[in-house]
Amino acid sequence: MRQAEIYRKGIFAGILVEDGGEYRFRYDDVYLSQKEAQPISLTLPLQAEAFVSPVLFPFFDGLIPEGWLLDVAIRNTDISILDRMSLLLLCCKECIGSISVVSKTDEEV
Fold first, then answer.
1. What is the spatial distance between Cα 44 and Cα 35, in angstroms, rounded to a whole number?
2. What are the structural domain ranges in the chain?
């Protein structure tokens, strides 16, 4: 099981989990209780229940770089282009925009 903390504009918004070929995203209860809380994507509206998918949610997949930047990431690691969660964790900690993806293992180091 791999987990990532999802931040919106530096504020913890929820957890993305890959477990047994299934992906789950759940907003944090504290984030949901904030008056100014905004969804991280129109396809992932604010709700207390977890979103579940057999593939990485298109919103998160869209954060992964393309083209030459993806080629650089793949060339310098042993990550397969098909391992979307690993690419997300590797490339999207400080991606352009309001969303950041931080591996749970990063904090433990």
1. 18
2. 2-108
